[in-house]
Design a protein that fits this description.
This protein has about 160 residues and is an alpha+beta fold. It has one domain (about 30-150): 60s Ribosomal Protein L30, Chain: A (2-Layer Sandwich). It has helices spanning about 45-60, 75-95, 120-125, 135-150; strands at about 1-5, 15-20, 25, 30, 60-65, 105, 130-135. A 4-stranded mixed sheet has the order 4-7-5-6. The chain has a 3-stranded antiparallel sheet with strand order 1-2-3, with no helix packed on it. The termini are far apart. It comes from Malaciobacter pacificus.
Length: about 160
Amino acid sequence: MKKIVINTLLGLSTTIALNAADCIMVKELNVEFKNASTVYSNASEYQEVKDYANFLKETGLYALIEGHTSSLSGAKYNYDLSTRRAAKVRETLISLGVNPSQVKSMGYGESTPLYDNSTEDGEAKNRRVRGEVFNSASELNEYITSEKNRIASIKYQEQ
């Protein structure tokens, strides 16, 4: 199985997996949460996690579950909250039958907003967990190491 990354016009990237016949296999994970909480924003969020679990089980791909927050509260609080959110999704995936060695989680806090935090809608959309897929455990671990290095200097800085 091959993996390619496509950048969209909006500057967002999506990961696409190709099976042995080079047919595209895509499954996005973007789960939103209630404010200051590890509770999904609505019932459809659990269904999205369930669909993602089935995708991981069918493809055998590895995943990093990334937790993110809005910029409300302090940076350390947001980092801890994002870590708990990502861990919750990881635990849900495992409870749905995904091999624990196939999925890891990591918090980013407020370091990587996709939307404008000066609006309520932007804040709500930044309270999210998303998934990145990888072909192997080594690819996943290399990515985690590089991401930890990237955010290490900014995760607790107050803005």
